[in-house]
Design goal:
The complex is a heterodimer of chains A (265) and B (346). Chain A is an alpha+beta fold. Chain A is built from 3 helices and 15 strands. In chain A, a hairpin with a 5-residue loop joins strand 3 and strand 4. Classes of the chains: A alpha+beta (265), B mainly alpha (346).
């Protein structure tokens, strides 16, 4: 290409300008690399995946048609199971690590909610997992929240504000109600009807690192809800009440944790 | 050469333009005014700062019957601006399909200074208050989920939500926060009384009004505390129980018998226009209210001790007290076009 260089100096200056920019880019790239390397070694983070498995007395929970029998002998089918877990806290050799904003809604019907992935956990060995079953009182007075706490998710009471911590509904022919329905909406954050419960689980020793995510299986057994209750006399709990406290105490121990082996079922 | 330079400049410019078109638009911030001498509001504006765009979106929603199941009832159907955002002439609010509720619609104003809402305080945060009317079968009879769905199918709403929240998908949270932006700005502080306190033009009290203020401060401020004219507490002011509705008030929420028949102390601002009065709208005239306090109080176990001493007023004193209550009318508020039906379509 024959070009008429009316002013060769200009092209030259452009060249220098360009190379100056190149240098700048190169330098900042190096800087970024250093920072990245440093942060990887100094604050290595890992990923924990919690697989949630709703079960009835150890067997995978099937919603709808399958008939289950409670401890007290009441036959039933289960339509809906939803439950909040929140304030997850991992304990281990280096102390404990509270996962911020970790409220998560488990919905047995929605498989996407049954995998809960937590990023950015400081690497290390952990052997304990604590969390709230339900939501603390601060969350209950914090107005309109989003994500898993959005009031469109059917876990919010409009007539008397506050969250439903856990919900279990179904049918049993011992219930003398419309369509033999039983309905447990367990919530309440004010004394004397505080229904949030703490779960504290021993973990198989897990090693969180930046290489491979760790997967835990969290079984949640809804059969616990019916311990020592008769569906004939207790089948409709939809307000903060003594009955709600009783169910919350029942399901306090519904969670069990195990490490998933990769070959796993 | 010149061309090249031009090209370079053009390139940089176009880069900048694309950059800016992706950056969120700047929203117009609104400063919440705390009138001189007033306490700080209980509601915190830090979670979601007030903006003009948010206010206008909330205003549109407040006047839009899309929030009800059959599109017949909006918030404004019951909360009418010209009466201080209460339901004119209705002791019990009419909702969808003409169904009637059991409670009188309260006036809406200065809500950011409240802590609990509704006559029994069942709602603990203004942001979630709208859930109650939307889902109440005798009011709007909708579900929040379905309202959100309807709004998501409207291009105009998706646009407005995108402007305000940077998210064109309408969520329950964003819907509630938008309504909140509107209702917390319904503030009334320019009545004759306020001008009197601030010693401004138009605030000169007549002798009757001045005397009424003194009587009020003697007998009423313990509950209807200035400047908000409520102490934000739940009290039993001695109304005889209504045997048809049997509303137990605050006890419904706390389940504590000590709270039986206690109701939220309502503000008295714009009281001239917000008849009928009391949680069940049993009185239609202020004279009846005053007669209740002088002669109608039922001395049950839960009667507030602030009313323990019987109140005796002469006819003239009653008139002066009412004359004072009229000075709480704030025409700037009742006629403020900023709060009225949004005529301009956006």
């Amino acid at each position: 290409m024959t070009t008429q260089l009316d002013n060769p100096c200009q092209d030259l200056s452009l060249f220098f300008y360009k190379s100056y920019i190149m240098k700048r880019i190169y330098r900042s790239f190096l800087l970024c690399l250093c920072i990245a390397l440093f942060s990887v070694t100094a604050f290595a983070k890992g990923v924990l995946v919690i697989k949630i498995q709703p079960v009835f007395r150890g067997k995978t929970l099937i919603l709808g048609d399958k008939t289950y029998v409670s401890e007290k002998g009441d036959p039933m089918t289960i339509e809906e199971f939803k439950c909040y877990i929140s304030a997850l806290n991992l304990t281990g050799s280096k102390g404990s690590y509270l996962i911020k904003n970790s409220a998560h809604l488990i919905n047995a019907e929605d498989s996407a909610t049954l995998t809960y992935k937590i990023d950015n956990i400081p690497s290390g060995h952990y052997n304990g997992l604590k969390f709230n079953i339900g939501l603390d009182s601060l969350t209950n007075v914090s107005g309109a929240l989003g994500g898993d706490l959005d009031p469109t998710l059917g876990m919010y009471w409009a007539w008397n504000t506050g969250y439903i911590n856990a919900k279990l509904t179904g049918h049993s022919n011992v219930c003398q109600t419309l369509h033999n329905k039983f309905e447990f909406h367990i919530g309440g954050y004010m004394e004397p009807y505080v229904t949030v419960r703490k779960a504290s689980l021993q973990l198989p020793d897990i090693d969180i690192n930046d290489k491979t995510p760790v997967t835990l299986t969290l079984q949640v057994d809804v059969a616990t809800w019916f311990n020592d209750i008769h569906l004939f006399s207790m089948n409709n709990i939809v307000t903060p009440s003594k009955e709600a406290l009783r169910i919350a105490d029942n399901y306090m121990n519904m969670f069990q944790v195990s490490k998933s082996d990769e070959s796993g079922k | 050469m010149r061309n090249r330079r031009l090209l370079f400049v053009a390139f940089i410019l176009s880069c900048l333009i694309t950059l800016f078109s992706f950056a969120p638009i700047e929203l117009k911030k609104i400063n919440f005014i705390v009138p001189k001498g007033w306490p700080q509001p209980a509601y915190s504006f830090t979670k979601f700062p007030l903006t003009e765009e948010g206010f206008q979106l909330g205003r549109k929603l407040f006047y839009d019957p899309v929030l009800s199941r059959d599109g017949s009832v909006s918030c404004a159907s019951c909360h009418n601006q010209s009466t201080g955002f209460t339901h004119v002439d209705h002791a019990h609010s009419h909702g969808i399909e003409g169904r009637t509720g059991t409670r009188n619609t309260p006036a809406l104003m200065n809500l950011a200074w409240n802590k609990l809402y509704m006559w029994d305080g069942a709602v603990n945060n203004i942001e979630v208050q709208a859930l109650a009317p939307i889902t109440n079968p005798i009011e709007m009879d909708e579900t929040l989920e379905h309202v959100v769905k309807k709004l998501n199918s409207s291009r105009i709403y998706r646009h407005m939500f995108d402007d305000v929240f940077g998210d064109s998908v309408v969520t329950g949270q964003h819907l509630l926060l938008a309504i909140t932006q509107f209702v917390v700005q319904l503030n009334s502080y320019n009545s004759k009384y306020d001008k009197h306190i601030r010693k401004e033009a138009g605030g000169k009290f007549t002798n009757e009004e001045e005397h009424g203020l003194q009587l009020f401060r003697q007998h009423c401020t313990s509950c209807h505390t200035e400047p908000l004219f409520t102490n934000n507490q739940f009290e039993n002011n001695g109304l005889p129980i209504d045997n048809t509705i049997h509303d137990i008030g605050r006890m419904k929420v706390t389940q504590n018998p000590a709270d039986s028949l206690k109701f939220k102390v309502p503000t008295l601002r714009n009281i001239q226009y917000s008849a009928p009065y009391m949680h069940d709208g049993r009185f239609t005239r202020l004279a009846q209210v005053v007669n209740h306090y002088t002669g109608g109080i039922v001395r049950s176990g839960n009667l507030s001790e602030k009313l323990a001493k019987p109140l005796v007023l002469t006819e003239d004193e009653k008139k002066d007290l009412i004359a004072f209550l009229m000075t709480l009318t704030d025409r700037e508020f009742l006629l403020n076009l900023r709060y009225s039906f949004p005529k301009e379509t956006k």
